[in-house]
Amino acid sequence: MVTPSEVTPAPATKPPKRASVPGPDLPRIVPRRHVGRWLTAAVALLLFAMVLNSVVRNDAFQWSVVGRYFTTAAVLDGLLLSLWLTAVVMVLGFLLGTVLAVMRLSANPVLRTMSWGYVWIFRSTPLLVQLLFWFNIGALYPTLGLGIPFGPQFLTVKTVNLLGPTLTAVIGLTLHETAYAAEVVRGGILSVDSGQTEAAHALGLSRRRTLRRIVVPQAMRSIVPTAGNMLIGTLKGTSIVSVLAVHDLLYSVQLIYNQTYQVIPLLMVATLWYIAVTTVLSAGQFHVERYYARGDSRALPPTPLQRLRGHLTAVRHRLSAATAADARPAIGGDR
Q1: What is the CA radius of gyration of the chain?
Q2: Whole-number Å distance between alpha carbons of 182 and 118
Q3: Bridge partners of 156?
Q4: Could you tell me which of 290, 272, 170, 168 has the C-alpha nearest to residue 228?
Q5: Which is it for the CA torsion 263, 267, 270, 273, positive or negative?
Q6: Which of 7, 62, 72, 95 has the fewest CB atoms within 10 Å around its CB?
Q7: What does each of the 335 residues of the chain score in pLDDT, given as a tens digit?
């Protein structure tokens, strides 16, 4: 028989908590006011409005002339040549630069020295000097030949007939770009942790396959931002070939204003085209960086459209919370 003392009393159950309803007597939480931030933004917007007003309402820019020449055939032909030069120089420059970067990281001292010497020479010489040098290469080598060293030549051609202004611009820009691309690729390869290479070798992968399948995809996260800057710099740097009478965008504009004497509006035409193309390239660079960021972080960086949607959602929630807080005392008074 069980005595009452042996019976274990049941634990007392706590009454369920009632949901607390905020009343009118509770303090209202007000976000911190950033006065300095708003003042700085107001001053920046005021300065921007002043600059924009001075540009738009200045008759010296002759916006009607800008609109008339913006899509003329001569300007568009020069723009296409500038884009073609940029694409060719970037592709050839990074192909040769990758070879030089691999040579620089090689265990062969001869290849390392040759790669270092190439980068040293072409980074130490101004681009304009290099272009003028290649443009006058006929003074050093009137003819170029193919044959046996110190023996007969089977094919000879005059340098003047071989190297025109456009080809000279391609050679000069490519050789100059190769030196910088080699350092960009080398820096990207060195940014990859050495443990990745050791793990690949432990799995039996060859050096070439390790570089192609393991190192380069991870190095692209460091290469792409700098390569994007080089691409934009090359696009603007093609304007320097106008000294060689290459019909790029700037030279085409110069030909027009040498006839019409409308220098400022024609320069604005070239400026607006450079800004438009640079904006497109910057957007492409952002998406390429976002693509190669997949293996680095779980959450990809938001796009500008996603950022705008997030800001609009936050503002909407903030306005809804403020409206609900303003209506709360009136509801409490009715009760």
Answers
A1: 33
A2: 10
A3: 145
A4: 290
A5: negative
A6: 7
A7: 445 555 555 555 555 555 454 555 666 676 677 788 889 999 999 999 999 998 888 888 888 898 999 999 999 999 999 999 999 999 999 999 999 998 998 888 999 999 999 999 999 999 999 998 888 887 777 787 777 777 677 777 777 777 788 888 999 999 999 999 999 999 888 888 878 778 887 888 887 788 777 887 788 888 888 888 999 999 988 888 888 888 899 999 999 999 988 899 999 999 999 999 999 998 888 888 887 776 666 566 677 777 777 777 877 777 777 677 666 654 444 44
Whole-number Å distance between alpha carbons of 310 and 317: 11
Residue with tokens 């023996």: 151
At 264, which amino acid appears? I
- Structural tokens at position 86: 């940029």
What's the half-sphere exposure (Cβ side, CA atoms, 13 Å) at 171? Answer: 16
User: Which of 188, 176, 304 minimizes the C-alpha distance to 237?
Assistant: 176
